[in-house]
Amino acid sequence: MITSENIYSGINPEKVLEIILESLYKLVDYELAVVMGVSDEKILKVLKADGPLYISALDRFEISLSKRTDIAGLIEKGKTHLFSEEEEHLDTYYELLEMPDNHSCLVSPLYVDNRAIGLLTLDHRGCGMFTENVVNLIDSLSKLIAISLSQMSAVNEMYRENRLLADERNNLLDNKSGALEMLVGNSDKWNRVKDSIRLVASSDTPVLIEGETGTGKEVVARAVHSLSARHSKPFIAVNCSAISAALAESEFFGHEKGSFTGADFRRKGRFEIADGGTLFLDEVGDLPAEIQPKLLRVLQEGCFERVGGEKQVFTDVRIIAATNVNLINAVRKGKFREDLYYRLSVFPLHLPPLREREADIILLADYFLNQIKKRLGRDISISDRALSVIASSEWKGNVRELQNCMERAVILSGGGIIDREHIRISDPGSLSGYKTSDSSAGSDDEISDLDSVVRNHILKTLAYCGGRIYGKGGAAEILDLKPTTLQSRMKKLGIKKS
């Protein structure tokens, strides 16, 4: 079967030139025929030499046209030139070959589209071997040789580029690629995620990574970046939930000096810093509504203005966004622009929760334990009973919770053997010493979305400060509420001390 690869692989530049010179020998009696190519640096390099006078040193022979202005002048004229017996000239290969006086010498520039690509030379030790008819013949044949040489060069460059692309593709498809080492797991669902990463990495398509908190969205985003052509450029991560509406425009697009109070100098925004690389928008569902149309414009047009500036700044970034909320629902509720959603979700990538990756749980636990052992430089082992607890747990906090659990288990074990009592799995409510009262909170259907968010946020804050409400570092101070107000909200939401 004949394929493009068969054709490409069968083309050997040296063989093509050998056929050309052999065919030429049947028409012209020469003792040395040489085809040279000219580089961008104005250097003539021998591509192929043939004939009775051929020596291997010719294969490495080069001529600087800046030094051999006589040859440069002949090439510039663009005409086949036969040196007469009376014409004084320096032999083309005087450094390698000693030719008799009055020998026959002919040179023919090789041109394609008025561009010099090389030179053909013919030599014979005899006198008057090349007639006017030979000159006319070579003048015509040199045009065909130039076209053949040019096409051969183009085809081989195409073949070289195809091989580079194939090698790059094979590298991306290699399971041992370093960029995927952090994506631990061999379950069917996780392998499909890795296949999708390899597939989308080579393009500049926007990617929307969806998944619960702790499923590894930023790790996946970094893997996509590392496998892409932008891997040597910046990877800039932005947590959209941590950006206030007032500062969002400056954060993304930068500002000019004096554009607002406190703007004492020009500052580059995240889009400018990420130019040529990847901008990762984490928790994109929390993006302030005021900035969404401006972000859409940058994605569409590739340019923006700094705050307080009038000059357009052009940027080339790939966008990878991540969310743990249902953006479709946010669009329906008017909290997220529909056109921005479709611009970001060209290639959606869903990350399964850890409970759907049961086969990966022990692999991940072992991976995290090995990471800790390397960091501490200590030999730490884990018992089968501890592994049994790990394998049977729900891991509502997903991979991040498992990682934290392993860190905690190493501490509790004293750096020795991790046993089942060292595996402590907890939720925000249990860590704080508070829980939600079923009678007060009601069913999920009876609680509004906002109340659910507020209740969970209070529980997480209580967990963070160890259940303390009053005093410095207490939950009330962190939430910027009076302690009595916080207690009142906790009562309303059914949060009471365990």
* Assembly state (oligomeric): single chain
Q: Report, as a whole number of angstroms, the end-to-end distance.
A: 76 Å
- Kindly state the number of beta strands: 19
- Give a short account of the largest sheet: 6 strands, antiparallel
Low-confidence stretches: 1-10, 438-448
Which structural category fits the helices and strands? alpha/beta
The count of helical stretches stands at 19
Strand content: 15-25%
What is the share of helical residues?
40-55%
Q: Which features characterize this protein?
A:
17% strand; six-stranded antiparallel β-sheet; alpha/beta; 19 strands; five-stranded parallel β-sheet
Topology, element by element:
Elements: H1 4-10, H2 13-25, E1 32-38, E2 43-50, E3 62-64, H3 69-77, E4 81-82, E5 104-112, E6 115-124, H4 132-173, H5 188-201, E7 207-210, H6 217-227, E8 235-239, H7 245-253, E9 254-255, E10 267-268, H8 270-273, E11 278-282, H9 292-301, E12 303-305, E13 312-314, E14 318-323, H10 327-332, H11 338-344, E15 347-350, H12 358-376, E16 381-382, H13 384-392, H14 398-412, E17 417-418, H15 428-432, E18 434-436, H16 438-441, H17 449-464, H18 475-478, H19 483-492, E19 495-497
Parallel strand pairs: 7-14, 7-15, 8-11, 11-14, 16-17
Antiparallel strand pairs: 1-2, 1-6, 2-3, 4-5, 5-6, 9-10, 12-13, 18-19
Helix pairs in contact: 2-4, 5-6, 12-14
